[in-house]
UniProtKB/TrEMBL annotation:
Residues 362-395 form the Protein kinase domain. GO terms for molecular function: kinase activity. It is found in: Membrane. Residues 299-336 form the EGF-like domain. Coiled coil: none annotated. This is Wall-associated receptor kinase 2. The keyword Cytoplasm does not apply. It is a single-pass membrane protein. It comes from Forsythia ovata.
């Protein structure tokens, strides 16, 4: 299954607190995330770099307030300006297997994720995928409101141990989820709903992951006969898929945040509200600035990169912007998308003075040629350009 994970930021040294480790393995770790003591904004943004792997792997250590502050380890795949891509095979998986009479579960696990009172929420870039025959994956995102959620049925219209399933299609379905703090996914047997005497296959599975190219995934229905075979065969197909968390700076919105003592936005940056319902904010560099907005943004010297000045224009860098000027002898705004630079038209008297100066008062040593209508002189303009100047003979 192909997924597009955004690339990490470049110039890592500008994105990490001074003196802090900027990379774990192949991943840049931008502030407010950080590796080590005093390198992140707070404990929620701590990244543990596990050097026992080659290359080392970064892990987000999430302390859940609702599970006695037990730490859950999520392997970090990528960090963007607003999202963090993580994976944890146990947290992402729900499973149900039934005994021979299909009236009791011999194996049962539920997806339960709780990010309440943390800077993380589940993104709507995720989906729940259910695999099985005659099974319902029930998605609940607010335990108080039973109606808040969704789900999908995975269905097989015949029992064929040599057949194949596909996503979405035979034995597989998927459904997107909403943004939220909590996610619960449970599997329920639905064979009686279809008026069948028994289930076709005893096991079913559900996974959460970012929306990807599931159309290319096929599996053998016979592998639904036991959990060990299925997970061993297809675990990488699904558990290699990260899920997406939206992250934010907590507690305030942009109306109140600038007045707080722990305002997160650095110099030359501004505040953006993340979500009016969930609260929190992000920081962005102002136009004309670049860098990490949580550490402070630096001026971009537009004169050293592409700009809108005409070729003869003079570029002058200013804080957050730049100006285009015209050289002597020209007027205009110097902008290739504006007036540009137009030669100044000299008055008759000024032109005569300029011509005398260029030819050293029409010195005979400057004569290039003579004719019936006048004399041609070699002249040098004020900017050093050599020209031929013809003085008309008036009878």
């Amino acid at each position: 299954m192909a997924v597009a994970v955004p690339p990490p930021p470049s110039n890592a040294s500008e994105f990490t607190k001074p003196g802090c480790q900027s990379r774990c393995g192949n991943l840049e770790i931008p502030y407010p995330f950080g590796i080590g003591l005093n390198c992140s904004r707070n404990s929620y943004f701590n990244i543990n770099c596990n050097a026992s792997f080659n290359p080392p792997k970064p892990y987000l250590l999430y302390p859940s307030r609702y599970d006695n502050y037990k730490f859950t380890y999520y392997e970090v795949v990528n960090i963007s300006e607003t999202q963090i891509y993580v994976k944890n095979s146990k947290e992402q998986q729900s499973m149900a297997c039934y005994g021979k009479r299909f009236d009791n579960k011999t194996q049962n696990s539920t997806i339960y994720m709780n990010f309440l009172d943390s800077p993380y929420t589940l993104s709507d870039a995720n989906q729940v995928t259910s695999i099985g025959c005659d099974d319902l994956a029930m998605v609940q995102q607010n335990p108080i409101k039973a109606s808040s959620g969704g789900g999908c049925w995975s269905y097989c219209d015949f029992q064929n141990p040599f057949g194949f399933g596909s996503c979405p299609g035979i034995g597989c379905c998927w459904n997107s989820i909403c943004k939220g703090d909590i996610l619960i996914v449970e599997l329920s047997d639905m064979h009686s709903y279809w008026r069948r005497g028994s289930k076709f296959f005893p096991c079913s599975f559900a996974f959460i992951g970012m929306i990807g190219d599931y159309d290319k995934f096929n599996f053998s229905l016979s592998h639904l006969s036991d959990s060990t075979t299925f997970l061993k065969t297809y675990n990488q197909e699904f558990m290699g898929m990260p899920f997406v968390l939206d992250w934010r700076i907590m507690d305030y919105n942009c109306t109140d945040a600038p007045n707080s003592t722990d305002y997160a936005c650095g110099k030359n940056s501004y505040c953006i509200d993340m979500d009016t319902k969930l609260g929190g904010y992000h920081c962005r560099c102002k136009k004309g600035y670049e860098g990490n907005p949580y550490l402070g943004c630096n001026d971009i010297n537009e004169c050293e990169i592409s700009n809108h000045c005409v070729s003869i224009g003079i570029c002058t860098n200013t804080p957050g912007s730049y100006n285009c000027l015209c050289p002597n002898g020209y007027h205009g705004d110097g902008n290739k998308y504006g007036i540009g630079c137009i030669p100044v038209q000299l008055s008759h008297n000024k032109l005569a003075i300029e011509l005398e100066k260029a030819t050293d008062n029409f010195n005979q040593s400057r004569i290039l040629g003579q004719g019936g209508q006048g004399t041609v002189y070699k002249g040098m303009l004020s900017e050093g350009k050599i020209v031929a100047i013809k003085k008309i003979q008036v009878n």
